[in-house]
Amino acid sequence: MKREDVRVAVLLxxxxxxxxxxxxxxxxxGAHAEKVHLKQLTGDAPPEFRRRLADYDVLMIPxxxxxxxxxxxxxxxxxxxxxxxAGELExxxxxxRPVLGVCNxxxxxxxxGMLPAVRGPITDTPEAVLATNDSAHYECRxxxxxxxNGGSCAFTGRLKKGDVITxxxxxxxxxxxxxxxxxxxxxxxxxxxxxxVFRYVDDRGKYAGYPWCPNGALYNIAALSNREGNVFxxxxxxxxxxxxxxxxxxxxxxxxxxxxxxxxxxxxVLDYVTAxx
Amino acid sequence: MRDLNRxxxxxxxxxxxxxxxxxxxxxxxxxxxxxxALSLDEMKTIRDHFxxxxxxxxxxxxxxxxxxxxxxxxxKSSKVFLREFIFPVQAPYxxxxxxxxxxxxxxxxxxxxxxESHNHPSAVEPYGGATTGxxxxxxxxxxxxxxxxxxxxxxxxxxLDFKFxxxxxxxxHPRYLFGGVVAGIRDYGNRVGxxxxxxxxxxxxxxxxxxxxxVACVGFAKKSQIQKNRxxxxxxxxxxxxxxxxxxxxxxxxxxxxxxTAEAAxxxxxxxxxxxxxxxxxxxxxxxLDAAEHGLLHGMKDLGGGGLSCVVGExxxxxxxxxxxxxxxxxxxxxxxxPWEIWxxxxxxRMMLAVPPEHVDRVLKVCDLYDVLxxxxxxxxxxxxxxxxxxxxxxxxVDLDFYTxxxxxxxxxxxxxxxxxxxxxxxxxxxxxxxxxxxxxASPNVANKELVVRQYDHEVRASTVxxxxxxxxxRSSHGDASVVRPLVDSHRALAIACASTPQxxxxxxxxxxxxxxxEACRNLVAVGARPHSxxxxxxxxxxxxxxxLGFFREAVRGIGTTAQALGIPIPSGNVSFYNESAxxxxxxxxxxxxVGIVEDFRTCVTSDFxxxxxxxxxxxxxxxxxxxxxxxxxxxxxxxxxPNVDVAAxxxxxxxxxxxxxxxxxxxxxxxxxxxxxxxxAEMCLGGDVGASLDLSSLDPLRLDFLLFSETNAxxxxxxxxxxxxxxxxxxxxxxxxxxxVGGRTFRIRRGRERSEVGVDEMRDAWSSxxxxxxxx
Lengths: 277, 777
Prior knowledge:
The complex is a heterodimer. Chain A is α/β, with parallel strands linked by helices. Chain A has helices spanning 19-28, 38-42, 75-94, 104-111, 183-192, 250-253, 263-276, and strands at 7-12, 32-37, 58-61, 99-102, 129-131, 139-147, 164-171, 175-177, 196-201, 221-225, 231-234. Chain A is globular and about 55 Å long. In chain B, the strands form seven sheets. Chain B has a seven-stranded mixed beta sheet. The interface between A and B is large, with 46 and 46 residues.
């Protein structure tokens, strides 16, 4: 399909707050993107506002504090989404269409059992968690992310393994953890399945602790995909480095209007969709 | 004692208060007993007014007047001075002065700005106080039809290591207050999705009993969507939307209009402080802007101090109309509220829309789409009477001229403040400049604020093009201003900076006020923005005390005359009086937020040194003005000479720096403020992770420590691109001197035979470890 035919749904509920820029950047790259409130997919909106998930080619859950995240981040959005749309979501994922979760969206995908999803497209219970940062508070700081994926991820096709990109972290709960008793076994499985997409590194490209890894995540994991590579969750915000002028140090590096490091995620998924469908 | 309350025979609490034959004592007892905080003269005016009507007021009417006539709502002690010094500062590009000032951005767009205090609630319940502070300022900007795009938080606390045993009863420890306020700003601001891009944190013993928590917001809108805070024609429907109304937040404005004594703090804790709910606010913003964008509104206004009583009265009055309200239609949090409670409650997250009848259904639909509660509760009527009923009973009927007219005072003030200047006590010139610089860098007022800045999401909305921290990733340092790009298809942008000057205002309030303007402008210019508008928050003591009011008047005069001379308008502002506790008044604290226009943000510069070998220039002259300096605080000096403001020098410096930035001569720029020249160089070194050598032989023969640490206004430090020196130096319209070169791993200072040197890593350690150490304790 052509880029202009790609339909992107940027899903939101109250407290989602990165939807506008996400829609804008997909549009800027030529796709047809729109904000869609969960109510519009579940039939709870007036008829003229209703939408069907199956009519979209890409689903994105953007960042924010969905429903306030007053319980575990992403849990409420995930529960509301799953209770009404589980079947449609499963069909969507099985069809190979891509699902992107950024920051709070990553938390939603994990809480919904759509990541790491080692045992099927949507597990009944979450298999992992994005826990409170080691610093015990929100961290808004640039992170270096090393690309570790071998080519299976629908969202990083334009990156080589080993590439390092700069993307802004902005979260209070980004510490990726697996169940303690199965931690090593599951981690091995994720690595073998090529599901680890980005890991936090320092300014020399080495795996490092705080503040380079802003949250204390297991194995410095910053982003994951499912086994098939079409469901992707990333803790830092690629849309916040879509242009070079959004990078924190562009006054040093120059070229403010140039592409920022986060743009590859959007470009790559559109490549994937246009090639596959 | 007689009970003046006459309960009416209705199945809900409603009283007529027998004021007409009340004695002076009884009037004051009513004022205190009902929490009105009105003076005897004000109570007499009310009594006489109702006597003229031939009836007694209801409790709803009295409560209403208590709100409307509070210092907080009607600026009764400050207006006379604001009218003299602030209001005359005009510019043709100011479009409106409502809940927020509205200023032209370009042909089709405008921005809104406003600052407010949340001092007393934050001193009692820091987390809730800070959250509702942000909630309130967002609504002020929203009420103009503008999308909030940036927040700024100037904060003032007691020392974090203040001794527990020295805390008076009822006063909370600075570390607790600091932690609560920062967490409140973080949790509310981040959740609501508006970036906190700027702010300041100042510590002084004077804030132990009464912290100063200000919050400012900038919004953005198409000119065609700008709203008025009014109803437009009879029949306009009052649609109340957002949160439900409850007993929380009763009497906030009246408690804000008395000193923060232990008793007042206790009363606040009884329900005047609330917790904001960002997740009610966030969709409320969308719904209101959606309705405004589709042309469904005649006006809107936020519910803040005084709740419904203020918003209905002011919207009707602004439209030259009256109003009718049915309190039974107000959605409540709980049953059993008395009518007066519904009428004055300051429950959070509420907006009032003025909707023409034909659009009411569509507005309700828009609100429903965002899951925002909305209820039509009344309408505009011809005339100037406000009439409120509850379950069919008329509970309030007031003339709006009387009601919103409010008293205004020209209170006595001292013309010579302070009465006694601090003594001139100069410390010995230091032997070891490296050691002194490290001490100044580790002073909490100068030290790295990254611990706080990075808890605030300054990136959400993906439009912050110059961040609050500048420099190499992982090595960043303080910037002077942040820049936000409001439009995706234009490089025109808004810069935001703030300044507060309690240290100078306490010793010379005129210079303190003037310096706040100077510094805010310097900060904006340092990134390449032309100062365009200002908003100020004036935090002072009890205005009924002539010396406190004297400080206020002088500071306002300083701000107003400086802004006037620069031609920069002040289209909004806020006054917070009664910042006093058992420990005495908090330092007089004028806070100024400035907004600047950047023609093309791609020309912006940051404060971090860029390249070894580039020359360093100092713009402006340095004088011996050590009063209130951070250096004197650290080494224990004292002086009554605060920095003067020389508007001609400031203008010359501003024009020169902006022209050089536009011409591409400048690689880095930093304003000189707390800690003076030495701290500015140090911060530029830290952000660029590189050293610098300074040779001050060519400068004024001041004592070296004064040269390095004086906080003289209108100065900037510039790193100039190699090869641009001649272009830069020729025609520079202000004094400028080459003072050094970027390079090496140390900061080296030389004058004549004097030499000192301190390592970049050593400076980073002193500067970065100070605040975390104090916070962890």
